[in-house]
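Consider the following assembly input.
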Amino acid sequence: MNTSKDVVIIGAGPAGLAAAVALKKKGVEEITVLEREDNAGGILRQCIHDGFGLTCFGESISGPEYAERFLKQALELNIEIMTGATVISLSQEKCVTITSDKGLIKIQAKTVVLAMGCRERTRGALAIPGERPSGIYTAGMAQNYINLCNLMVGREIVILGSGDIGLIMARRLALEGAHVIGVYEVLPYPSGLNRNITQCLKDYEIPLYLSETVTEIHGRTRLNGVTVSKVDQNRKPIPGSKRGIPCDTLILSVGLIPENELSMEAGVQLDSKTGAAVVSESYETNISGIFAAGNVLHVHDLADQVSLEAERLANGVFEYLTKKRLEAVDIKVVPQKGIRYVIPQHISHKKDFFLSFRVKRPMEDCAVELIQNGQIIMKRKKIRLLPAEMIQIKVPEKSIQDHGEIEVLVR
Amino acid sequence: MNDEMTCIVCPRGCEMRIVDGHPAQVIGAGCKRGVKYALNELRCPVRTIASSALVDNGTLPLVSVRVTAPIPKDKIFDVMKVIKKIKLSAPCHVGDVVIKNVLNLDSDVIVTKNLPER
Amino acid sequence: MEKFDVAIVGAGIIGCAVARELSRYKLKIGVFEKNHDVCFETTGRNSGVLHGGFAYDRGSLKAECCLEGNREFDQTAKELDIPFKRTGKLLVGEDISDYKSLLEVLDQGHDNGCSELRLVSEEEIKKLVPYAQGKYGLFSPLSGIMDPFQYVIGLAENAKLNGVEFFFHERVNKVSRDRSGFIVQSKNKKIESRWLINAAAMGGPAISEMAGISGYRTTAGKGAYIILDKKTGLYLPMPVYPVPNNSYMGVHVTPTVDGNAIIGPAGDEIEDGDDYSVSQEIIEYLSKSASRIWPCIRKKDYIRNYCGNAAKWYDSKGLIYDYKIEIRDDQAPHFINMVNMESPALTSALPLARRAATLMKDRENLHINTSFDPMRIRVTRFTEMSDREREEKIRENPDYGEIICRCEKVTKAEIIQAIHNPLGVNTVAGIKLRTRAMTGRCQGGYCEMRIVKLLQEELGVSEREIIYEREGSYMFSGKVR
């Protein structure tokens, strides 16, 4: 079955749904959202904790409720969402091949929105040495098992990584009566939001150990313990500092990786700093008509940010569909001292753009500067900047010069 | 008595400090809600909790639930005990009140996901 | 007590090859396996290479069986539906001393019957494997790579089809004799059998002793491997090995039939064959060592690592180097001992099995099983079908349209067929090895939950009964509610 559409959105999570709703409201008719799960919502379906919706709806609601708000709009706007549909191929010419229990479908899209989200870093990728027992789960898997499958992963829990997912799971496990022995973080500062340290760890008296990591896994059949060691400033284990922690479950919260296999297949250029697409101010990738937003582009702290980014992307897609192409984006935006990455990586000077970035290390009493042609075109003083918190700044068109790289740095 | 805390109202997580006195002063709050949180946190800390309830005949075995208003921190596990006993029947809808005014804490336990029948 | 003609101890590559070979005859055959499946020990933890036959002593049983197995493997792969590629293999060396070793290997290879083995220049090395590093090379055109899981599963499924019975999770703990033959016992099974064939690896000496031949012991040669992402596999068209000697092949790099690259093996000799741990030092050593012959190894491409323990047999004279298939008619009649079945066991398995059968045929009349069917067809994979074939398959079975493992594009139909496999085994790892689900970048992060759900639905197992691989590797402590 072959059809053509104005927009094909890959993923019905917070990014995909928000983009679909925004585009329909603008009057784009032929939209299809593709979702491989049987239900739309993406990762929100398993994020049952509240804290979503503060920006978009002015309330603190759970992940499923947040997804439902967009889904309701999508239904009311008659947006086609195909569930149980997996994209198995995406070509540079924007031909999307999908498989579902109804057969193979090829859709020729005028524009494609990449909204596939991200996957979790695994034990294998970290190469944590030791034996091969069962009982090791990434935080997202544990969350899925507990919240969606009614399966309890274990009783005596060690969590590696203090990213938000790990912290949320620490609380979830404690609420369900498991004993969370501790959260171990290899960096000297937490990776997740400070509020989560309070409401997920301190509230439940779960200790947080900084500059420590799991250096060995024990257990022939089921996990029976881990060895943790203190690490130095280069993250190398300090000899003599190791100790054994008996436990039956290890939860890994050690990083999220944008899921860009389809993007690569389509020839989308990736930024090595994000592992994700290089995009313009309109969230268009180097392939004309292919756009990206949400966690597939860079890992966000909040679903609200994802939805707002997707809405900005929708403006870009709309402009592309009506004008057939977008402004040339000849000005590069480059991260410099202290900045891990920037989105977008190029802009035109013809409109305001939304800059998103993260710092490499916690910084206090500092200033973010945008420098173009040797001049500071923008400066923002900040009391505190953390790698765990994405910073977003709107850069007005009038501040941008018509040529020259923009360097983003923090002093 | 000085008390330091991280605000949990919004993701900014402002680091605040309370200096005791009449009235007590809150330093470091980024907004009014933060001040309110800080003052409350000293007297009667409250939290929202979310968990799962068993469902019969639904497309999933559990449905997510949460409390509609923050409950006292020291009552968290009492509320969890009540939540663990819940048995619902599909279909469930967002907003369904499962337990009104749980343990008399001025907070309801509501369903937060639409779950159709199998 | 049930009476069998043949009892085989061990369902690894040797046990399954012997079972399949003997199922050509009218024999009642039972195979005892301590694990929950056929591929959990060394058979499922190796490089997956079809060896050329040149790296073994002249006149050895290893050289003979390896060559035989290599030459017939196209037929074997066809019959048992084993993913297999005759890629060739490249050996590389850096200096004159390496060159001299390669000349010796060339000589030995020619004497062993590998007439196509030839030296290659530095230029040719670059043509064969552009990223390989070496000044001197040896090319074995008939070497190849295969899926070892599908191989042993194929042998077992075909043996089962032809009447062989398998007893899983039944470790043989007692062997004794009565008038009619052997009594073989495990936890829940006790059978009588006229013949006993020992295909146990680490546990082999103990079985041998119980059957009447003592004097053997085993240690384990640990071999750890790192698996790399398929992106790097693109740079490795065939296995590349450093200059070998006849007892150690060195840390090599091998493509898998699915397109990954694996680096290994390396490790020490240990006593405990169940110790599958991998240390930090070994991982670093593997990467460093293999980078010298193939500098494409990056930590960001690590998918995971694993380890196999090759059983090394010793007798009173010391380490045994060659294969030994023995029968001692006066000391232990009707007992065939498969001794030291180490690498190249995958390649040599069926030739070895035939020799074991010959020992039986020399002592009694074996009647042909006229209904023997050599063919085994594995589960059709979505990834191996054209779009046209996919359309048709989905019409026939809509579950072929539902992707469960998105990294490896494994469909619900394949998972369900793996759950209902002919051997009746049901661990999560067994499903993984049969379908390739969970072996990709996300290591089950997306699909494991769905596979567990299907296992529960299809087999009605409770959450505490679901095990990952070994006995005791439970996955869940219970329900949440």
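The radius of gyration of chain C is 22 Å. Ask yourself how this observation constrains the way the partners meet.
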